[in-house]
Amino acid sequence: MDIFIFIVAMTALIYGADFIIEQSEKIALHYNISPFVIGATLIALGTSLPEMAVSISAATKGRADIAVANVIGSTIFNIALVLGAVFLISKKIQPDRDLFAKDSAWALFPILVFILMGIDGKLNFVDGLLFVILMVGYLMFLINSNQVEDINTELKKERFAWGKSSIMLLIGFTLTIFGADFAIDSAGNIAREFGISEWVIGLFLVAFGTSLPELTISVKSALNNNADLAIGNIIGSNVANFTMVLGISSMVNPLNVDLSGNFFDIAAAFILSLMLVFITANKLYTKSAGIVLMVVLGLVIQNSL
């Protein structure tokens, strides 16, 4: 029963986040806010809404393992699964942007900051505030480098109605909040039922569910021959996960971090981030690279379960 509740809760969470993003775009476009600004801020953060909702809910319930494992697991899935899938399904990837020179640091820097902050075994309010400031720096980088994600400008052609948008936003927030709440409770029950730790549940079950928006967007971008957007979405999502998700969660309630106890999983996320930098440095946007990433994902799952 808990598995069914978890699936329904994660579905509600993802659809709720999607409703919030779409209606927020409509409102911004209605008030003639630049699509460039919308793409650099709203959409850059949008795909991390499920992770944010889940981790904040976990933090308020005192379940730090799920909150932190969700971010580590999402990083692993975003690079190994999502990027691996992009490489495997793309016919040819030739990004116009020099991803190594302009973006690679953002793939690695947030997890390094996380490790340094976690040495004392806790992420507190000050750590969270520094994470949020780092996210502001990333958004400024996006704006200054003209690296923004596409938005659905077709929404502007639709007749705007405050009543409908307000209702859809209310539905979106309700689904997101309650979805996250039930997802955390059911995930905890599943962990107890099967005798496994909440860290493992957060690392794989919860993280996989919250990574589905990134998978959908990146695969769609790859099929449309927009590799820059696909890879940029993964980097941006990982930045948002460490900065906004962990940042706000630790500001809500301090999070315990066990670097030594969870060394393998954190090291896996770090190594995969290094692999992403290596791939962009050598422009290894190939099916072989996709297979290697999938193999690494399999090894991580095998060793963590």
Tell me what you see in this structure.
The protein is mainly α and 305 residues long. It has a single domain (2-304), classed as NCX, central ion-binding region (A middle domain of Talin 1, Up-down Bundle), CATH 1.20.1420. The protein is built from twelve helices and two strands, in the order H-H-H-H-H-E-H-H-H-H-H-E-H-H. A two-stranded antiparallel ribbon has the order 1-2. Helix 5 packs antiparallel against helix 6. The relative contact order is 0.23.
The largest sheet is: 2 strands, antiparallel
N-to-C order of helices and strands: HHHHHEHHHHHEHH
N/C terminus separation: 22 Å
CATH homology superfamily name: NCX, central ion-binding region
Strands, helices and their partners?
Layout: H1 2-30, H2 35-46, H3 49-60, H4 64-89, H5 99-117, E1 122-123, H6 125-144, H7 162-194, H8 198-210, H9 212-223, H10 227-252, E2 255-256, H11 263-282, H12 287-304
Antiparallel strand pairs: 1-2
Helix pairs in contact: 1-2, 1-7, 3-4, 3-7, 3-10, 4-8, 4-9, 4-10, 4-11, 4-12, 5-6, 5-10, 5-11, 6-10, 7-8, 9-10, 11-12
Defining key terms:
A middle domain of Talin 1, 305 residues, globular, single chain, mainly alpha, two-stranded antiparallel sheet, 79% helix
Short description:
By secondary structure, this protein is an all-alpha fold. Helices cover 79% and strands 1% of the residues.
